[in-house]
Amino acid sequence: MINTVLFDMDGLLFDTEPLWGISMLRIAQRHGIPVTQERFKDTRGFHIYEVTAYWAVKYPWQGKTSEEVAEEILDDIIALTIAQGRVMDGVVQALELLKTNGYKIGLASSSPIRMINALVEHFSIKHYFDCITSADEVELGKPHPAVFLHCANQLGALPLQCLVLEDSINGVIAGKAARMKVVAVPEPAHYNDPRFAIADAKLRSMAEFELGMV
Predict the structure, then answer these.
(1) Is 130 a catalytic residue?
(2) Collapsing DSSP states into helix, strand and coil, what is residue 6?
(3) φ/ψ (deg, to 5) at 14
(4) pLDDT tens by residue, 76-111
(5) Fewest CB atoms within 10 Å of the CB: 68, 119, 129, 167?
(6) Same domain for 140 and 70
């Protein structure tokens, strides 16, 4: 029986996915790194330090390290999301529904913990989560299942007692690899991606979420 629901953050709780593109492109251009918006799909769902490490191998540059570039991107995306971001439709209602019905609620994101904390505090939803975990705390980010397994463990839940809500294919793969039930909420441009067929269910937005899906 499922008693625990684990949320991704970027693209699911907040509309950060397009903002990540803006921040990554802006900082990449600052350092002469020849990436494009189209190439960002190769690292969708990765931890930001994994993204810049990938860039360092594929598009070597002079000057700052990949870790320093990642920190610049983080500073930029946090400021940009606070200025222009929003909580996605249906998120607060889903959190209220789950909390009212006694489910344990976790946040398991590939984003660094300082970004997670900054955003859940700014948008006033931190109090809904019984546990917040970041890929900072595990060796490998999504599509590896470690961040979901770590969050479930912190909540005292077995994998088969967990439902994962995810917007990215790498996140869906991670949830399934963790042996958890997965509901995908892809962004509109990727809704018909056939790879989402591995999810147990698929929604067009969190506004469609119902307790019967748990």
Answers:
(1) no
(2) strand
(3) -125, 155
(4) 999 999 999 999 999 999 999 999 999 999 999 989
(5) 68
(6) no
Tell me whether residue 214 is in a domain: no
Distance CA 8, CA 24 (A): 20
Handedness of CA 45, 50, 52, 55 (dihedral sign): negative
Residue pair 8/108 in contact (Cβ under 8 Å)? The answer is: yes
3-state DSSP assignment of residue 28: helix
Domain that holds residue 94: 4-15+86-208
Helices (H) then strands (E): counts for the chain? 7, 6
Can you tell me the distance from the alpha carbon of 116 to that of 168, in angstroms, rounded to the nearest whole number? 17
CB atoms within 10 A of CB 182: 25
Encoded amino acid at 41, one letter: K
Q: What is the pTM of this model?
A: 0.90
Residue of 10, 76, 130, 136 marked catalytic: 10
Backbone region of residue 148 per phi and psi (left: phi > 0; alpha: psi in -120 to 50; beta: other values):
alpha
Give 6-57 as a DSSP string: EE--BTTTB--HHHHHHHHHHHHHHTT----GGGGGGGTT--HHHHHHHHHH
Q: Which of helix, strand or coil describes residue 165?
A: strand
pLDDT at 45 over 70: no
CA distance 197 to 44: 18
- The interaxial angle of helices 66-84 and 17-30, nearest 10 deg, is 140
Positions of E strands within the chain: 4-7, 104-109, 131-134, 162-166, 181-184, 201-202
Task: Decide which of 57, 84, 111 is a domain's last residue.
Answer: 84
Any catalytic annotation for residue 193?
Answer: no
